[in-house]
Amino acid sequence: MTAMPSRLMPKLLVVEDDPGLQRQLRWAYDDYEVLCASTRAEAIDLLRAEEPGVVTLDLGLPPDPDGVSEGFAALEEILSLKPDTKIIVASGHGARESALRAIAGGAWDFYQKPVDIDTLGMIVKRAFHVHALEQENARLAERATDEWRGSGGPVLGQIITAAPEMLKIARTIERLADTGVSVMLLGASGTGKELLARGLHDASPRRDGAFIAINCAAIPETLLESELFGHEKGAFTGAVKTMPGKIELAEGGTLFLDEVGDIPLPLQVKLLRFLQERVIERIGGRQPIPVDTRIVCATHRNLDEMIAQETFREDLYYRLAEIVVRIPSLAERPGDAVLLARHFLKVHADAMNRPVKGFAADALAAIDAWNWPGNVRELENRVKRAVIMADGKYATAADLDLAAAGEEEGDILNLKAARDMADRAAIRRALARSQGNIAAAARLLGISRPTLYDLLKNHGIQI
Ligand SMILES: Nc1ncnc2c1ncn2[C@@H]1O[C@H](COP(=O)(O)OP(=O)(O)OP(=O)(O)O)[C@@H](O)[C@H]1O
């Protein structure tokens, strides 16, 4: 299925169902080890086995060679298994829409069919270059942020994390803060989207202006327009005085639109107009009011799906989401649950003047094993509860209202990744149980202390 393998050459995966084109592409590239797949399943097998850095992906794959469904499914699957893969999507004539959708879905670039080998060659070369740079960057960043992992001190103002994934996000936010780009934060409820939005504001040149947050899902549709745009006295029954809207209040600062996916369509049009013209009109008002504010928004909804169903305007999406930042759930950030739990325990024990000093071993193991469907918010609530319920100095799993430890399962890339993940989880669990004592953790794991030190180093785990 592949050309002459060479250990040292970077791997390029060509996902293309036309055998003639496959052959052509395979011979066109001497500098890469070219792997070819004709279907999504083959592509995923090769991804798992070979971990190519760059993929060229034809969207029309069997069983839907004339459509794009398989191609988009492949794009999503590849990125969920290996998010750093650079995917270059092939789009047919006039398929600008697919190309844009692919980029919004995480593709790195696209090219127009019929294939021009030289042009594609350049895109592929650039993709490998960026991939190599990112890998190097990630390695350096890992090293540079090691100190944070030890202390778990706050980054970007108030964010407590030890997870490389979140540290990377904090760095991204810091970098974006200076630029004027619109940022969309995607993540489940309670993952810290608002905290990150505030961090972005505080790190931006607008920090002296107001940070105004509005949760679009929490306000009834009929009131949302007035909340956002304000109203003049007498504009409707009950409008007894003129009220500026949240957009206006955010003048000179940042407006955080939480759950932006819940804005009804007519209001989306009005918001889009504001983003284009940067002026608003209060309800019942005749005067256009210029407003200079930066919009950061967030949602836990699948906006791609909403766009496809025409319940969210695509033009608004592109205005709001110049940069999309995906926030991992708490379960996807190994080590963070325990770290945050310790932080919240101290905060709430101090605030409530309770004698609780830490967690019992069963509590730490349970925290580490729980899947945290409600993310950081759930964690904080459970810890608060434990601070109240704990009898002695140490809060137990029962105080957290957590049962004995269970196991969670995710989609994994390959056997090596699965083993690494299992190793890391076991080590973290042992460290949590032994309250960070290396000798005790090594004993729990049935290995020597030097072996544990080696493993900690290899897996980049700090205690
Ligand atoms: N990394 C973190 N460090 C410290 N506190 C955090 C962290 N992440 C979240 N929190 C806290 O958890 C709570 C929930 O976070 P936040 O409101 O930012 O989540 P969200 O993703 O905006 O949730 P929703 O979508 O439900 O509004 C807040 O009290 C926040 O301060």
From TrEMBL:
The GO terms describing molecular function are: ATP binding; sequence-specific DNA binding
Sigma-54 factor interaction domain ranges (all copies): 159-388
Supply the Pfam families for this chain. Answer: AAA_lid_14, HTH_8, Response_reg, Sigma54_activat
Q: Which residues carry this modification: 4-aspartylphosphate?
A: D58
Q: Where is the Response regulatory domain?
A: 11-128
Recorded superkingdom:
Bacteria
BP GO annotations: phosphorelay signal transduction system; regulation of DNA-templated transcription
Gene3D superfamilies xref list: 1.10.8.60, 3.40.50.2300, Homeodomain-like, P-loop containing nucleotide triphosphate hydrolases
Q: Which UniProt keywords apply?
A: Activator, ATP-binding, DNA-binding, Nucleotide-binding, Phosphoprotein, Transcription, Transcription regulation, Two-component regulatory system
Instruction: Respond yes or no to whether keyword Nucleotidyltransferase is given for this record.
Output: no
Q: Which PANTHER family match?
A: ALGINATE BIOSYNTHESIS TRANSCRIPTIONAL REGULATORY PROTEIN ALGB, TRANSCRIPTIONAL REGULATORY PROTEIN
Q: What is this protein called?
A: Two-component system NtrC family response regulator
